[in-house]
Design a protein that fits this description.
The protein has about 300 residues and is α/β, with parallel strands linked by helices. The chain has one domain: Glycerol-3-phosphate (1)-acyltransferase (3-Layer(aba) Sandwich), CATH 3.40.1130.10. It has eleven helices and seven strands. It has a seven-stranded mixed sheet with strand order 1-7-6-2-5-3-4, with helices on both faces. The longest helix has 23 residues. It starts with a helix and ends in a 17-residue tail after the last helix.
C-alpha cells in the first residue's frame, strides 16, 4: 500500500502526523534544565539505592582518589534539624567528597544544588545525578525564583542542602566571590549555615582535566552560622564567605594562628591576591601543587 503523497512529505508514519487545522496540541513538557522533575529521587526506592551507592562505590572511590582528612565535626555537636552546607568549589570531586563527609543525621537526607545548565542538559544525565547525588536543578545564569522556591520547600520538609555559593568551579585554584543563595535560603527558612572548606580537590581533578590524579584532601567543617536579628541576606552572605576563608586559613596553617588572624580581621581572602595570573599561581598554597601519590586500597 502506497502512502499518500501529502503524508509522505510530512514524514508519516516515521513521525507523528500534524494536528488538524484549528486544534492546538498540548504543550510538551520540558525535560532538561530547571524543568527536570526530581521528586522521584527523594522517594524511598531511590533513597535506598542512593544510600547503597553513597556508602559503597562513592565512599570507596573518594577514599582511593582523595584520601580525605575530616576536621571540625565536633563543631556540629548539638545541631539539629535541616541545615545548609556551604562550601568552596574547585572540582567536580567536591560534591562526592562533601556528600560522603557530611555526618549523620544529615548525610542520607541531603540534596545537592546543581547547575541546571550543566548537570541537567539531558533527561538521562539529569536522572543519573538526581539518583546518585540527590541533585536538584538550580538556575545559576540568572536569578530564578522557581529554583529558590523549590530549594526552600525541600528545606521546610526537613531536607538539608549542599550548595556551592561561588556558582561554579575555580578557574585558577583561587576562590570566587560568593553569591547570595545560601544566605537567602538561610534567612528565608530560618536554618543555620555550616561553612565548609575543601582543600586539595583542585589538584586531583582540576577544571579542564578529564582524568583524576590521586592525592590527599582536607574537609574542614566550621561553626554553624545564623543571621542576626534584622540581618538580611546581603549582609549575612559576606559573613559566610569570611567563615569559609577562615577555615581555609586553618587548613593551610593551624587553628590558633587562623583564629588570631580572624579576630584581627586579617584572614587572607578566598579570592587570592589582585595580581597577574602568574603571580596568583605562585601564591597558591602548597596543597594546590602537591606531588602525585600512588593510589592505595582503603584501610579496612
Amino acid at each position: 500500500m502506497r502512502i499518500p503523497r501529502p503524508l509522505e512529505r510530512r514524514g508519516f508514519p516515521w513521525t507523528a502526523p500534524t494536528p488538524p487545522d484549528g486544534i492546538e496540541p498540548p504543550a510538551r513538557r520540558a525535560r532538561t534544565g530547571v524543568d527536570v522533575e526530581t521528586a522521584w529521587a527523594r522517594r524511598w526506592p531511590a533513597r535506598l539505592a542512593r544510600l547503597a551507592v553513597t556508602e559503597g562505590a562513592l565512599r570507596a572511590g573518594v577514599r582511593v582518589l582523595a584520601d580525605p582528612r575530616r576536621r571540625g565535626l565536633d563543631r556540629l555537636d548539638g545541631l539539629e534539624g535541616p541545615v545548609i552546607f556551604a562550601a568552596n568549589h574547585h572540582s567536580h570531586l567536591d560534591t562526592p567528597l562533601l556528600v560522603t563527609s557530611v555526618p549523620e543525621p544529615w548525610r542520607h537526607r541531603l540534596v545537592v544544588a546543581a547547575a541546571a545548565d550543566y548537570f541537567f542538559t539531558s533527561p538521562a544525565r539529569g536522572a543519573f545525578f538526581a539518583l546518585v547525588l540527590g541533585a536538584i536543578p538550580i538556575e545559576r545564569t540568572r536569578v530564578s525564583r522557581r529554583s529558590a522556591d523549590e530549594a526552600a520547600a525541600l528545606i521546610d520538609e526537613g531536607w538539608s542542602l549542599v550548595i556551592f555559593p561561588e556558582g561554579g568551579r575555580s578557574p585558577d585554584g583561587w576562590g570566587q566571590e560568593f553569591r547570595g543563595g545560601a544566605a537567602y535560603l538561610s534567612v528565608r527558612c530560618g536554618v543555620p549555615v555550616v561553612p565548609v572548606h575543601l582543600a586539595g580537590t583542585g589538584t586531583i581533578l582540576r577544571r579542564g582535566r578529564m582524568l583524576p590524579r590521586p592525592g590527599t584532601t582536607t574537609v574542614t567543617f566550621g561553626t554553624p552560622l545564623t543571621a542576626h536579628e534584622g540581618e538580611d541576606a546581603r549582609r549575612f552572605g559576606p559573613r559566610i564567605e569570611a567563615a569559609v576563608a577562615a577555615l581555609a586559613d586553618e587548613a593551610f596553617t593551624d587553628w590558633w594562628s587562623a583564629r588570631r588572624r580572624a579576630a584581627a580581621g586579617a584572614t587572607p581572602p578566598l579570592t587570592g591576591p589582585a595580581a597577574p595570573t602568574w603571580r596568583r599561581a605562585w601564591a597558591l598554597p602548597d596543597t594546590h601543587r602537591s606531588a602525585r601519590r600512588r593510589p592505595r586500597w582503603p584501610a579496612l
